[in-house]
Design brief:
The chain has 171 residues and is of the alpha+beta class. The protein contains 5 helices and 6 strands, in the order αββαβααβββα. A hairpin with a 4-residue loop joins strand 1 and strand 2.
């Protein structure tokens, strides 16, 4: 009788484990689908995300953050120096000042600047960042977004050029 009870208990435990495995597999599938949709949304919006770990000095860039800069998604581990290497030379002092001011105040920032990809293509970027603090209030990282606004910027310039042309031709 004890053997039958022990066997029933093992069967019950096994069924519970199988149920838990099924629940975990389902949760994992939902997570992966959510991750896929998030990546697709970033691609559609041309918004990449990144996070910089102050302890390691390494930033992890999302697939879209890499693509914006003309990198493959496998090149997602970058340093502060490599980030700055993409900044357009005419914008470098401005970007450096914005980052220094933000690091001094420990307040996130947002600003516009240009990058030059490795293939020489210039892109217009809007970035916004926030600090991450540890339990003691010490900054441990920085995270944010890079929004490629090149098409918007070019459309604005095109519209301005058309207005200027109309004004000039009317005189």
């Amino acid at each position: 009788a004890e053997l039958i009870i022990a066997n029933k208990e093992l069967v019950f435990q096994n069924e519970e484990k199988e149920k838990r495995v099924t629940e975990l597999a389902s949760a994992n599938a939902k997570y992966e689908l959510g991750e896929l949709k998030f990546k697709q949304a970033q691609t559609m919006a041309h918004v990449g995300s990144w996070e910089l770990n102050f302890a390691t000095g390494i930033a992890l860039w999302s697939d879209e953050a890499c693509r914006i800069r003309g990198l493959s998604p496998e090149e997602n581990r970058q340093s502060q120096e490599s980030f700055l290497s993409f900044v357009h030379p005419d914008d470098l002092s401005f970007v450096t000042k914005m980052l220094n001011d933000s690091n001094t105040s420990l307040v996130g920032s947002s600003f516009y600047y240009r990058i030059v990809r490795r293939d020489g293509v210039v892109r217009y970027i809007y970035t916004k960042n926030r600090f991450e603090f540890d339990a003691n209030g010490k900054p441990k990282g920085l995270y944010g977004i890079s929004h490629d606004i090149t098409e918007i910027k070019l459309a604005e310039q095109n519209q301005t050029d058309r207005k200027s042309t109309r004004l000039n031709s009317s005189h």
